[in-house]
TrEMBL record:
Belongs to the RRP1 family. This is Ribosomal RNA-processing protein 1. Keywords: Nucleus, rRNA processing. It comes from Exophiala aquamarina CBS 119918. Its main location: nucleus. Pfam families: Nop52. Coiled coil: none annotated. One of its GO terms (biological process) is rRNA processing. One of its GO terms (cellular component) is nucleus. It comes from the Eukaryota. The keyword RNA-binding does not apply. It is found in: Nucleus.
Length: 268
């Protein structure tokens, strides 16, 4: 069994706040390199994850808003770090270690950071943050469905646990009905994009599973098994939205959540 070792230091994030784009880019490369090279058995602590996300958030915030393609590329790279994080958990799991120590900490730190910074976002930078939230959610959902598709032919227990833990993060932060640390503006944005992103990732994962099944000449029952597992995961991921549609303090949030639930039910 892989033993979790004492956490190693992280690179400084102060240069991500530099007014010079070249300095910010160099600092980002150092962080990406560190995360790629860091041993899976030395997971980030919650404090380290918050420090990194604070720096990454500032890097997005400071980026030139006038260059839409450049902004999108940066946000894609930052959100894409989820794949690096998920790979660390996979490495630990393969060695018989504890699952989820990387991904749960990383996603929690992201939502905590966005929730904390939300009220200070000005009108000129809000679109960048909205895009970051959307791309992060998209990547998160993609990883969850990928885990289900890979796991299902063997055993659904592991992927079910991964999905369940991430659902807990979502219902504790952006989709929490009553957590006062989460601004309603963030809740509303997540609910605005929720159905589109969830259904798009479900469709992509289902299509990929069908192609993979065809290449491997698997049985129709096996292909249906993966499809059913993906649909089941989608329903589990919808649970926080159903909950917030009933328990949210804000009437506007309740209505938006009900719309998301209706859209999902009509499309599934």
């Amino acid at each position: 069994m892989a033993a979790i070792t004492e956490s190693e230091p992280i690179p400084s994030v102060k240069d991500l706040a530099s007014s010079e784009s070249s300095i910010r880019r160099s600092a980002l490369r150092a962080i990406v390199s560190h995360l790629n090279e860091r041993e899976a058995t030395s997971p980030l602590t919650p404090t380290q994850s918050l420090q990194l996300w604070r720096g990454l958030y500032v890097a997005v915030y400071m980026h030139d808003s006038k260059n839409a393609i450049s902004v999108q590329n940066l946000i894609t790279e930052v959100a894409g770090l989820l794949s690096v994080i998920a790979a660390k958990d996979k490495a630990i799991s393969t060695s018989g270690g504890q699952d989820g120590v990387w991904l749960d900490t990383w996603t929690t730190a992201f939502w905590e950071t966005i929730s904390r910074e939300w009220v200070s976002i000005d009108q000129w930078r809000m679109n960048k943050v909205l895009l970051l939230v959307r791309f992060f959610l998209r990547e998160n959902l993609r990883l969850l469905f990928d885990a289900v598709a890979v796991d299902e032919p063997k055993s659904s227990a592991k992927s079910h646990e991964i999905v369940t833990r991430q659902v807990h993060v979502l219902e504790s932060w952006p989709l929490s009905p009553r957590e006062r640390k989460v601004p309603d503006g963030l809740r509303l944005h997540v609910l605005d994009v929720w159905s589109d992103e969830l259904l798009a990732q479900l469709e992509a994962a289902t299509a990929a599973a069908a192609v993979q099944g065809g290449q491997e000449s698997s049985s129709e029952s096996g292909e249906n098994g993966v499809k059913n597992a993906l649909t089941g995961a989608a329903k589990l991921i919808m649970a926080p939205v159903e909950k917030i549609s009933k328990e949210a303090l804000s009437k506007g949030v309740k209505m938006r959540a009900k719309d998301a639930v209706k859209s999902f039910q009509e499309s599934i």
